[in-house]
Amino acid sequence: MKKLFIIALKDMKLIFRDPTALIMMLLAPFLITLGMGLITGRFSANTNSGISNIPVAIVNQDEGELGKALEAVFSSDELADLLEPTFAATPAEARQLVEADQASAAIIIPQGFSASIIPDERGSTSGETVQISFIANSNSPTYSGILRSILDAFLTQVEVGRIGAEVTLSQVAQTGKLTPELAAQLGAVLGTQFGQQSAQAQPIQLENTTASGAAVKFDLLMYFAPGMALMFLMFTVSNGGRTLLLENRTGTLPRMMQTPTTSAQILGGKLLGIFLTAIAQLAILIGSTTLLFRLDWGEPLGVILLILAAAFAASGWGSFIATFSKTPAQVANLGSVIMLFFGLLGGSFFDMSQLPEWVSTLGKITPNAWGLQGFTTLAGGGTLRNISEPLLALLIMGIILFALASIWMRRRGLVRK
Amino acid sequence: MRKMIAIALKDLRIRFSNPMEWAFFLILPVFFSLIIGGSTGAPADSRVGFYVVDEAQTSLSTSLVDALNASTSVRPELKDRQEALKDLDERKVSAVLLLPAGLEWDAISTAAQSVELRQLAGNTNAFVVQQGVQAALGEVSSAVQIASFSTQQGEQLVGFASQAERSAWFSQALSLAQTALQVTPNRVLETIADVADPVQYDPKTNSSIGQMITWVFIPLIGLSGMLAYERQIGTLRRLFTSPTSRAVYLGGTIIGMVLTAMLQMTILIAFGKLVLHVNWGNSVLAIAMMLVSSTLAAAALGTMLGTLVKTESQASGLSIMVGMVLAMLGGCWYPLELFPQTVQTVVRVLPTTWTMQGMLDITLRGQGPSGVVLEMLVLFGFALVFFVVGIWRFKYE
Q1: CA dist A112 → A1, A65, A80, A151, A402 (Å)
Q2: Interchain CB distance below 8 Å, B89 and A211
Q3: B339 in helix, strand or coil?
Q4: Domain span including residue B350
Q5: Which one of A161, A244, A314, B216 is separated from B190 by 20 to 30 angstroms, measured CA to CA?
């Protein structure tokens, strides 16, 4: 057992002294994660969603309550992080902001908007439908969609308030206990009162949870960080497999065979070296992103088990690749190609939900897909129970690949006395 | 010139003696373009898809599904619970809306009920689904809100003699509210602004060009590996004992790599045109201007990196890393217009940004040679700066 660890630690030392290996194992995934954070606005936003400070131009030409209420919605504290409203003086100015790509949409509340909905003291409205003008920026379909949703939600409340008052008063009037004049006076009061009440108490509440049933914490880096760590894990394990062939070529492996060390110890030591290096890589990347990006990876025990399982499965792949290659250079090249293929198939580059179904099915052969499933589940508040499937899949993958690699390495006589 | 050609041919032989080189040259770019181009975005229905599990099977749940179907931002698809949650676990869908048994009009009139939206953590599509579902819930529950309010006001203003009278009032209010809500006037007039520089995003075009740039830049940046390899095994020193100048050596190596990259780009352009139906316009000159300037800029970057790396394997790792980071930040993976404004400005210092911009000018904006002159000049500028630094600092031994 001691010999096994000596061989493994020697391999680890060699890899961690190699600047090239360090570039690919640590610097590359770190830089790409950092880049993903930059382009998604994760570091510039006040929220972790990457969606914040949506610029919107608002013009209020309405003299009534509803125009002011809509202005208040867009400048409310609740939406302060999400929106960045600019109050323009004229519709032309607001439109210009959109056309210059400085606003995701313009909202123009025309004169008489409130009067067309809220009845006056005589109980009548202006009679015509006065429309709010929503000018969308075609360059920002997502942002203008969000702005439109907020506007629609406000108008739904307005409509609910109006109809609520109408229905109430028509029913009360039917009883003959209210005069039509009194009903008209009450109309506006009830409408406003109900509009405010209904906004607070929805009869159907939406509970936002993650796949594991925990409350949603939105952070784009919680996807990209494990995605990149798992992709470059494939480089590490193929690089580990490469050292086996390199030692064979440089003669250190045959020399090791001359010592009182069994071939099982040598092979076991080499494979353990790959496994431990993979664990170290994942642990360093997870540790550094936790400290620098303040990522919450979830339940620590789950994270540790997942690191072990992902490193085990990936190391299986690294050993398997080595058995198919004749030279160290072949392992390195094949490793780079497989790293990129697995990165795409396993969802490291793009979320699996955006890829065709056959890609996600094929992706099951990669440790990336299972690892990502596990890490994102934990980050979303999942527990050990929720990651049992990816853990099991990674273990089975590792066992099968290590078994195949051991058999073929022996057949090739790579570690035979 | 003969010497340069001989050096270029020798480099090509060395490079393609490794079968894996074909993976980077053709297989990976084609595979990535096909998968990404064929999957990102669906022009027929750009709404974000998600699953709905309707375990209630009531008129309320049906109304909710109808409201979601009418949404302009989300697209519901009915599934059973097991399949929906399995797909969510496997990240095949971004969100699943669970409508529990017992979700009925009567139930929500007496007490608030909950529906659960299970979603992927850190997923932008799930965020959009959340907004869409919230809007649909608001719409559907409006009638109940109105009926409850009316009943509450009726109790205060008129008073009910019995529970039956109260229920009858509520039922009538619900019916009146549902009728009134169906004929609400459209209070929003939506128009699309004429934006000065519209983003014309097409998944296949963006993916085809983005992947082409990524996989052409990586080997060209890997030119540093070719230089390091010759230096490492000592052939560079031997070469200089022959009557060959340093300029001829560097010229031959760089020209060989640039010509190979141009061939690679031409094949990938043909693939994009024939398979992905990317519209490459009619201006061969504009395409040629971009091919020459972008490959020179990338090769120059490789030459400059050649001054930093000591071994071929170092260069190999560095070129993949630098190539991927440059491609990502240059808008080759995700449209640049989606980046924050500050980042959009900062990434203009990258050659990949200008290459992507020039290629999109040709394909999506239909521009000819005059439209890509600026991009070409900037790329030549990059090439000049990188070559000067690379050649000046190059270690021949």
Answers
A1: 85, 11, 28, 18, 75
A2: yes
A3: coil
A4: 2-40+202-393
A5: A161
